[in-house]
Write a structure and sequence with these properties.
The chain has 135 residues and is an all-alpha fold. It has a domain of 42 residues. 79% of the residues lie in helices and 0% in strands.
């Protein structure tokens, strides 16, 4: 009986997969891993290093300005009359408590960090190993 229930659950989960979302991400992840561990690795590292240097060195000042600007805009919106607007009308009740919002935000941030580190750190490690091997 348990196996029958498990099969029904697996079928319903597979039916909920959206192919236009799932397969491109799997496809690009597979390509990424293939390139990282193939003979295209040096070319791939050169391109990703150029992109990283452009973002960090050449455009780093813009990231800082945009970050500070976002904090200023959020502060202005919070203390302006816009901060008193209640989505859903005057009688609207929040669906979640503040502790639930905190937990969602915390878990989302941790998950994004894990996804980034899982992919980004391999690029950094491969880049460092190629520099060490050259010297």
């Amino acid at each position: 009986m348990n196996d029958l229930n498990r099969n029904n659950t697996e079928k319903s989960l597979l039916g909920k997969i959206r192919p236009f979302v799932f397969f491109p991400s799997v496809y690009f992840t597979d390509i990424d891993h293939y390139i990282k561990f193939s003979e295209w690795r040096c070319f791939f590292l050169r391109i990703t290093t150029l992109a990283k240097d452009f973002m960090v060195i050449d455009m780093g000042w813009m990231f800082s300005i945009v970050g500070v600007g976002c904090v200023i805009v959020i502060g202005l919106a919070y203390f302006s009359p816009l901060g008193n607007v209640r989505l859903g009308g005057k009688n609207a009740k929040p669906m979640l408590k503040k502790s639930s919002w905190f937990a969602i935000t915390l878990c989302t941030t941790i998950a994004a960090g894990i996804l980034f580190l899982g992919n980004g750190r391999t690029h950094v490690a491969l880049g460092l190993s190629s520099r060490i091997l050259r010297h």
